[in-house]
Design a protein that fits this description.
This protein is of the alpha+beta class and 86 residues long. It has one domain (9-85). Helices cover 26% and strands 10% of the residues. It has 2 helices and 3 strands; from the N terminus they run ααβββ. Strands 1-3-2 form a 3-stranded antiparallel sheet, with no helix packed on it. 5% of the residues are buried.
């Protein structure tokens, strides 16, 4: 696995496009809502996987700026109250 530190949204989108067009396995990107939103807007997300922590955050933060059709594929719940949804 290769790791890449990206410092701007333009570089992020360009680099993910480059990786997706190369031969090999799929691309996994770890990041917060801003990263997911940027890649989603660019049409580069095939599957979202969210880890949901039982913490309340303010500021009306959202991953999706436009309506998206999502389908729940799987989920895992942990004793810590964290939930993973794919």
């Amino acid at each position: 696995m290769n790791a890449l530190k990206v410092t701007s949204s333009t570089v992020l989108v360009d680099r993910v496009r480059e990786l997706e067009s190369s031969d090999g396995l799929g691309v996994t990107v770890l990041g917060g809502g801003t990263v997911a939103a940027q890649l989603g807007e660019a049409g580069l997300v095939g599957e979202y996987q969210f880890v949901i922590l039982p913490v309340a955050l303010g500021g009306d933060r959202t991953v999706f700026t436009k309506s998206r059709k999502l389908r729940l594929i799987d989920h895992w719940a942990f004793r810590s109250s964290n939930v993973v949804v794919t």
